[in-house]
TrEMBL record:
Homology family: Belongs to the glycosyltransferase 15 family.
Keyword Transferase assigned: yes
Name of the protein this chain belongs to: Nucleotide-diphospho-sugar transferase
One GO cellular component term: membrane
Transmembrane helix as UniProt keyword: yes
UniProt lineage: Eukaryota, Fungi, Dikarya, Basidiomycota, Agaricomycotina
Positions of region (Disordered): 59-79
Domain of life: Eukaryota
Annotated active site: E297 (nucleophile)
């Protein structure tokens, strides 16, 4: 079949239009890409990254072979006037194993996307054994911020020799029989003790005051349009949380007894403006099991480094309870923050949407819209009967 004159005409027109479109697209792309490249080079100038060279930010000779997209991740947003000097004295802290890699990558990427890409806070990853090269590379590609990988000194990690292993083993067997999660695990106890008493002494964390604790496989649901570290700094906060809940009693059977001993021994460390009401429903006689869930924490390491907390930790440590029972760092941190800090120094980060299996906090209404939160505001632990949030809120009403 031959083409009719009309079809030939429209074919010519089509070719002409196509050429015009291609030419204008080319110019458009040149302008757009050039803008990106300029921004990237500005970003490199105030250098968030230490020790890693950024891909060339020079004008590429051929625009079509400009840097691949992953190197342009931080363009317009980083160009906002948030330079190094505007950062708080703070870092992320991530305790993890090489085997946690997939969950680590997922958590860090979310944190970068939701918050840190605009700020450039450093990351500190800690492990009781060295991270593998693969691990480091997979993490480093996720951020333009400095990433520090550290090994934990053995004395900060392993069960001390003075612990009576027979007694510790009996405790583990008992908890295994009771069906308590990680009840039989020694590494889990090492982890809880390290988080309670040692992480903030690590060489890589010494230069910082505030930290945000991150765990593998967690979710950050919302964009953050402010800097929680600056918030902590400006408001002199000591401890920030998103989820508060009840502890499993069999894991901390004698903990409260030792806390009461500590209070008697060191009354000078107990803060008169503290929040015993959060911990106890009978003025301190018994523990109501309420604690802040420590897999999310934004807190002040100088508080953990203080004489008061050091005395508190030393007192608990001397009882061996981290190994004879299974004391979590969450109740330990929470009890200390409640007794040694003023209650107004403990902050509920209501606008940070967060999930650690199987519990989540999803902000409601206004902050949900503002933060573009990828969670269901009606699916939030806040009002659950095992939540301690109402107890926290009651202290301020
Ligand atoms: N390096 C290292 N990190 C650990 C070890 N055990 C736990 N962690 C880390 O410590 C944090 C808490 O451990 P998790 O296993 O998440 O404990 P959890 O949050 O109470 O329980 P699940 O998340 O429900 O398993 C996480 O960041 C882990 O990656 C360990 O033996 N070595
Ligand atoms: C950050 O905080 C730590 C701990 O308080 C302190 O030693 C360090 O000097 C601070 N750094 C800056 C730059 O203020
Ligand atoms: Mg966890």
């Amino acid at each position: 079949m031959t083409a009719s004159p009309i079809m030939v005409l429209s074919l010519r027109r089509l070719v002409a239009i196509s050429i015009a479109v291609v030419i204008s697209l080319h110019y458009l792309l040149v302008v757009v890409f050039k803008k990106d490249i300029d921004v990237v080079s500005t970003v490199t100038d105030f250098g968030g990254r230490i020790g890693l060279t950024k891909p060339a930010s020079k004008e590429p000779t051929n625009i079509l072979f400009s840097p691949p997209p992953q190197f342009k991740q931080s363009t317009s947003e980083v160009a906002l006037p948030n330079t190094g000097s505007e950062r708080a004295n703070a870092t992320f802290v991530f305790l993890c194993r090489n085997s946690d890699l997939a969950g680590v990558v997922s958590s860090i990427q979310q944190m970068e996307d939701r918050f840190n890409r605009k700020h450039g806070y450093p990351w500190v990853l800690l492990n009781e054994e060295p991270f593998t090269e693969e691990f480091k590379t997979r993490v480093e590609v996720l951020t333009n911020s400095p990433v520090h990988f550290g090994v934990i000194p053995p004395e900060h990690w392993y069960q001390p020799d003075w612990i009576d292993e027979e007694q510790a083993k009996a405790g583990r067997l008992r908890m295994t029989d009771q069906g308590i999660i990680y009840g039989g695990s020694v590494p889990y106890r090492n982890m809880c003790r390290f988080n309670s008493g040692f992480f903030f002494h690590h060489e890589l964390l010494k230069p910082y005051k505030y930290y945000w604790r991150v765990e593998p496989e967690v979710k950050y649901f919302c964009d953050l349009d402010y800097d929680p570290f600056k918030f902590m700094e400006e408001n002199k906060k000591v401890y920030g949380f998103t989820i508060a809940l009840l502890e499993w009693e069999p894991t901390i059977t004698t903990l409260w007894k030792h806390v009461k001993e500590f209070s008697k021994k060191y009354p000078e460390y107990i803060n008169p403006k503290g929040s015993m009401e959060f911990l106890s429903d009978d003025q301190g006689e018994s523990y109501n099991l309420c604690h802040y869930w420590s897999n999310f924490e934004i807190a002040d390491m100088d508080f953990w480094r203080s004489d008061a907390y050091q005395a508190f930790f030393e007192h608990l440590e001397s009882t061996g309870g981290f190994y004879y029972e299974r004391w979590g760092d969450a109740p330990v941190h929470s009890i200390a923050a409640s007794l040694l800090a003023r209650k107004d120094q403990i902050h509920f980060f209501e606008d940070i949407g967060y999930r650690h299996e199987w519990i989540q906090h999803c902000p409601n209404t206004e902050s949900w819209w503002k933060g573009k939160c990828a969670c269901d505001p009606s699916d939030s632990f806040d009002d659950h009967y095992n939540s301690c949030l109402s107890r926290y809120k009651r202290m301020f009403s």
